[in-house]
Backbone:
């Protein structure tokens, strides 16, 4: 199934006294590029998270955010930290001894002191296991998001591909008549220039011009490349680079078709093909 490199997933976990939020975002990138923004409690998980993502994704610029929110201490009534209170009392005695006129600590001062109010904590292993489980779930959601976007891209490409095939199919039946008209036009010009005495030269020039203007080979290659694009789009896995190469080949054949054109019909077909191929190429840039 075709996958886009663009996707987003958000997953959250509620634990006792804490919540974990996980965000994964990805955009198009030639290779796989990973960026992590992790809460301090989860920084040690980066190697495991990196390996986890690398196992599932091949291309894209991916940003992984994992945050930790502890429940408000006041709602848990965890009490005061006796160690901090003892230290504050000792420091206050020292200050008042040196500065008798200093104001003593108020209840509000004590409650606002870092660490004075105890907060609920979870064992690191519990937090890490939960974060990794959440990351796996978020990664599943991201892959599904990328697949949905990939399905839209695939349809967009198939629509343009069908239009390109229609241009080639419409041009093929016209080639014999266009070639005959070109030969007659060239023969008339050469007869005017060379006269009847140049009959042998006339035949040579007509044959050479017909060879240069023959676009059967270009049209055949276009048809073959169209079929290959359809085949690759139906494959699983990373197909973006292969499709990008095919777009280059299609553009080359469309260019050659235009450069060899000797009729308005082939020039117009070349231009329409290049527009459609460029539209497909823009979408291919976002396929994994």
Residues:
């Amino acid at each position: 199934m075709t996958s886009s490199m663009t996707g987003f997933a958000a997953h959250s976990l509620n634990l006792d006294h804490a919540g974990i939020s996980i965000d994964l975002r990805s955009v198009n990138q030639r290779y796989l590029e990973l960026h992590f923004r992790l809460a301090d409690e989860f920084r040690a998980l980066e190697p495991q998270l990196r390996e986890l993502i690398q196992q599932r994704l091949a291309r894209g610029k991916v940003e992984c955010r994992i945050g930790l929110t502890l429940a408000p201490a006041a709602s848990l009534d965890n009490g005061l930290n006796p160690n901090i209170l003892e230290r504050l009392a000792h420091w206050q005695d020292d200050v008042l001894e040196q500065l008798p006129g200093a104001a003593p600590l108020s209840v509000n001062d004590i409650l606002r002191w870092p660490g004075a109010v105890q907060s609920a904590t979870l064992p690191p292993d519990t937090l890490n296991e939960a974060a990794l489980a959440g990351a796996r779930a978020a990664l599943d959601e991201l892959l599904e998001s990328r697949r949905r976007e990939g399905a839209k891209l695939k349809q967009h490409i198939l629509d343009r591909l069908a239009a390109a095939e229609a241009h080639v199919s419409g041009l093929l039946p016209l080639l014999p008549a266009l070639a005959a008209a070109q030969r007659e036009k060239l023969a008339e010009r050469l007869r005017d220039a060379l006269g009847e005495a140049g009959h042998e030269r006339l035949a040579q020039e007509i044959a050479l011009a017909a060879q240069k203007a023959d676009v059967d080979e270009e049209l055949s290659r276009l048809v073959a490349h169209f079929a290959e694009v359809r085949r690759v789009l139906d494959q699983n896995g990373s197909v973006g680079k292969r499709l990008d190469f095919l777009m280059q080949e299609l553009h080359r054949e469309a260019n050659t078709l235009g450069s060899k054109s000797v009729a308005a019909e082939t020039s117009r077909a070349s231009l329409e093909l290049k527009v459609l191929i460029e539209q497909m190429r823009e979408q291919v840039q976002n396929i994994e």
